[in-house]
Amino acid sequence: MFERFTKDARDVVRGAAVHSERSGSQSVGAEHILLALLDGETGRASLALAALGLAERGESVRRALEAAHRRAGLTRAEADALAGLGIDVSAIVSRVEEVHGVGALSGDRGDKGWWSGRRSFSRGAKDVLERALRAALARRDRHVGDEHILLALTVLPGVPAEILADHGVTYESVTRVLNGQGESQAG
């Protein structure tokens, strides 16, 4: 599948692996793919993110990703659903971090065991790449570009889609920009 990726899309995948390594994660996740997209400067996704006003608000996205990471990758909607059941995720995170240290719920701590030198991709990251391929096929594009990866992130349930939507980046807004139907500033 990787041979069908454009240079910009391959750069996103490589950048995601770098973000994963920097964060100490054992695998590349969808959140690392989002961070790599934010790093891009030349691809269609970068142009779309700039047109939607997200390029200059990358730090806000990074803070939101860090907050989700601290709550073990739960979306705010999931945390709200648990609150409806009387479970206060913030209180649990605070208590666990008080006892075990900041980031204890992130799942990537301590002994990492044997490592082959190559980062694996989480199910979420694999889903993003598979959905990107489907997006390219649906648009009848010959290659998978970084814009298809961005489109995939906007439609798959999870933290990256929630954060993008919070910043006004949705499937519809990205599609509108990619189709040249004007630039709209993200909210």
TrEMBL record:
PROSITE patterns attached to this UniProt entry: CLP_R
Keyword Repeat annotated: yes
Keywords attached to this entry: Repeat
Signal sequence extent: none
Span of domain Clp R: 2-187
Name used for this protein in its record: Peptidase
Organism in which the protein naturally occurs: Streptomyces poonensis
Species lineage: Bacteria, Bacillati, Actinomycetota, Actinomycetes, Kitasatosporales
